[in-house]
Amino acid sequence: MARIVGVHGVRNYQELLTPEMAASALADNWSRALGTGDDLVMAYYAHHLQDAVAQGPGTPEDLDEEATEMLYAWANALADEPKFKQGNLMRGPRYLIERMTGNPFTGLVNQLFILIFIREVQLYLGKRHRQRRLNARDEVARTIRRHNPRVVIAHSLGSVVAYEALWSDPALEVDLLVTMGSPLAMPRAIYHRLEPAPPANGTLTPRPPGVRRWVNLADPGDVCAVPRWLKRFFAVDDDREHSIGVLAFHDALSYLASEGLAEILYS
């Protein structure tokens, strides 16, 4: 029985590897980062979110109306106010991404990451990609069912997939769900697209029925973990903040190697 099932985030598609090989390689990387010798397997779903027409992140001009809508929602969440209005920003997605990362000449790596992130979010949550969503969700649910872990650790978009996978089968039980750098509460882009849908009356969204404890971990500078405090929206047991490094604000391996995660798992 595996003690931990990991659920990866964006930028983890391994084109040259079979899904089984990719899952094994990612599990090895996560295990080394944890450094505890725990038995860890990876719920690998990235191959279900690949667009056969266009590979790579593309450019801001490639974003369709739905992806652009998600981008505006993300930018507003970062600003914590309705600063950017869809259809009212003449310079469009490229200008918006530059504003999110500083300016056109710095933060180019972060700008590239934003394109990759928003594209994979759309491939999972987008209206035209329903079957991809079901396939990815079912893949994660099957891995949890097969290995019956005590702990599920989910990073980035993987926290969204894991959340829906755990809801999809109430028989799935885990002692602890840890979400890292989670965008689950991002309004309109993610939160309002979740299945099952959040309560309309503004009450806290319940956690999946088989999850006994849920702890959320976020770096204070993680641009994907917005809003950062999931307890404002979900029945989370604890929200924790831990810096994983200025340049590693969303990196999965940095989260895994952090004292913040060690305290959650082993204290």
Topology:
Blueprint: E1 4-7, H1 19-34, E2 40-43, H2 65-79, H3 92-101, H4 108-125, H5 130-147, E3 151-155, H6 157-168, E4 176-180, E5 214-218, E6 238-241, H7 252-256, H8 259-266
Q: What report would you give on this structure?
A:
This protein is an alpha/beta fold. The chain is 38% helix and 10% strand. Strands 2-1-3-4-5-6 form a 6-stranded parallel β-sheet, with helices on both faces. Helix 2 (65-79) runs parallel beside helix 3. The longest helix is centred in the middle third of the chain and has 18 residues, at 108-125. The two termini are 22 Å apart. The mean pLDDT is 87.
Summarize the structure.
The chain has 267 residues and is of the alpha/beta class. 38% of the residues lie in helices and 10% in strands.
Strand order of the largest sheet: 2-1-3-4-5-6
Based on secondary structure, the structural category is alpha/beta
Uncertain parts:
none
Mean pLDDT: 87
Rg, rounded, reads 18 Å
How far do the termini sit from each other? 22 Å
Largest sheet: 6 strands, parallel
The number of E-state strands comes to 6
- Strand content of the residues, in percent? 5-15%
- Helix percentage: 25-40%
Number of helices: 8
H and E string: EHEHHHHEHEEEHH
Shape: globular
